[in-house]
Design brief:
five-stranded mixed β-sheet, single chain, 8 strands, alpha+beta
């Protein structure tokens, strides 16, 4: 029977399958009976994971730094694109309020229709948003419409609006102004112009 020091010397060759069948059988029998050699065999045959070297750590840190820089640049670029799109949307689709010195308006009556004609003088496109003006609620809780608010906005001419869209015509029935509280408000950036039955052409 093989002795411990012989078995321990042969273990590397045994693990790599380089011993004869007779020697292999003797080593296996010895390992079954000797716990010390069995422990050495288990330790030698268990694969070990080598700890990363300092060089490998440096490479990993370098790659992390590059990834952080690239991610930062991508985020900065995305934020820039969003900002540009937001500014473009503001000037092309939302616009800015019109001041009195950028607008010419005139009123006229045709038959039973009162009209307000607006025209921009700064070569920008005109977009007018309208809102209903409501009075106090009646006994049924219904708030009657007592007029309109017209809000002119100037936009950079774009495919969204015709480049020549510089004017806007609004009309309402003339007899609406027979009501004391009825009014049309032209809401400009630097103040309101109000049209009532007593002041149809201020």
């Amino acid at each position: 029977m093989l002795k411990c020091h012989v078995v321990q010397d042969l273990l590397p060759s045994y693990i790599d399958g380089l011993v004869s069948k007779e020697t292999e059988a003797e080593i296996q029998q010895h390992l079954q009976e000797c716990q010390a050699c069995q422990a050495i065999y288990t330790k030698m045959s268990t694969p070990t994971t080598a700890a990363p070297s300092k060089e490998a750590h440096r490479e990993i840190d370098f790659l992390k730094k590059i990834r952080r820089k690239i991610t930062g640049k991508l985020l900065l670029g995305a934020a820039g694109i969003v900002l540009v799109l937001a500014v473009a949307a503001y000037f092309i689709a939302i616009g800015s309020p019109v001041s009195q010195n950028q607008l010419v308006y005139k009123t006229q009556v045709e038959g039973d229709l009162w009209q307000l004609d607006l025209e921009l003088t700064n070569n920008k496109a005109l977009l007018v948003r309208t809102e209903s003006l409501y009075g106090e609620a009646n006994a049924d809780g219904i708030r009657p419409v007592i007029g309109k608010i017209l809000k002119p906005y100037q936009l950079v001419p774009s495919p969204l609006l015709e480049a020549e869209n510089k004017s806007f015509l609004y009309g309402t029935q003339l007899d609406n102004f027979e009501r004391e509280d009825y009014k049309i408000i032209l809401r400009l950036d630097d103040g309101d112009i109000t049209f009532t039955g007593d002041n149809l052409n201020p």
